[in-house]
Amino acid sequence: MSALKPYLYLAAAIVFEVIGTSSLKESEGFTRLVPSLVTAAAYAASFTLLAFTLKTIPVGLAYAIWSGVGIILIAAIGWFRFNQTLDTPALVGLSLIVAGVVVINAFSKSLPH
Questions:
Q1: Which stretches are transmembrane (predicted)?
Q2: Mean local confidence (pLDDT), 12-29
C-alpha cells in the first residue's frame, strides 16, 4: 500500500464523519427520515474507511487525527451553518486540538512515512 493511501482513507473517513454529524443535528433526534438515513450511511462509510486506515496507521494516532480534525470541522459548520457561536475559551481549546494534530503529524515516529 502506498504511504499516501491510508491518509486518503482517513481524510475520506473524516469527511463522512462530518457529514454524519451535521446530518445528525438536522435529523432532530431521528425524527426526520432523510437526515437520519444520511447520518447512518455517512457513519457507516466513515467507520469502514477508518477500518481501512487502521491497517497501516496505529489506532491511537489515527483516532487522534480523525477526531481532532472532525471536531474542528464540526465546530466550523456549527458556526457557519447553525449559527452556533464560540467564545474565547472554546477557540483556545480548538486551537490546542489543532496544535496536537500538527505535533502528531510533524514529529511522531509512530506514523508511517
A1: 7-24, 36-54, 61-82, 88-107
A2: 96
